[in-house]
Amino acid sequence: MKIICIGRNYAKHIEELKNERPTNPILFLKPDSAILLKNQPFFIPPFSKNIHYEVEVLVKINKVGKYIDSKFAHKYYNEIGLGIDFTARDIQDICKEKGLPWEKAKAFDGSAVVGEFLPKEKLGDLENLSFSLIKNNEIVQNGNTNAMLWKIDEIIAYASQFFTLKKGDIIFTGTPEGVGKIDENDQLTGILNGIENFSIKVK
After folding, report:
1. Which CATH number does 3-127+147-182 carry?
2. Complete edge-to-edge strand list for the sheet that includes strand 138-144
3. What is the pTM of this model?
4. Strands ordered across the beta sheet of 87-88
5. DSSP class of 157
6. pLDDT in the model for residue 43
């Protein structure tokens, strides 16, 4: 399986990082080794002094697809979840300055938190999903999929032009504003439509 991530999919997040607004979705990949094992803490890696949390709605692909039309994209997933795209912001900034790829900053081991997947029918309108991240009992990110620049079906259609989507692939759909640094002993909890979806400890 592979993890396909979408960058800069929320306007306010683009503004907070002073990035340029893209004309198409920004795609990057994480390997399966990036997935943080269930019930395990996230260990801050020694190569970064500025790891940021980025909470995101996740989509799990349920069958093979290539060149998918957006009007048929809903047939390629049945489950929605929540996760974190951990980012070594200091390394990413250096890579961006030099025009280099982001993999060191985005795809390192344990950088992808994958919460519980839920049947999409139980979540209602997927274009109006509320989600948030709580750090140490304080809400630090609060988002809604209605603010996405590209909706889930559009993302699937776009990504499938470049990558064959396979059963079990996971799409991270982008993060809203409010990203920030983590520290040792932080507790991070993800909430999807008012229900706790994951909770991890930082070490």
Report:
1. 3.90.850.10
2. 138-144, 130-135, 187-192, 195-201
3. 0.95
4. 87-88, 51-53, 180-181
5. H
6. 98
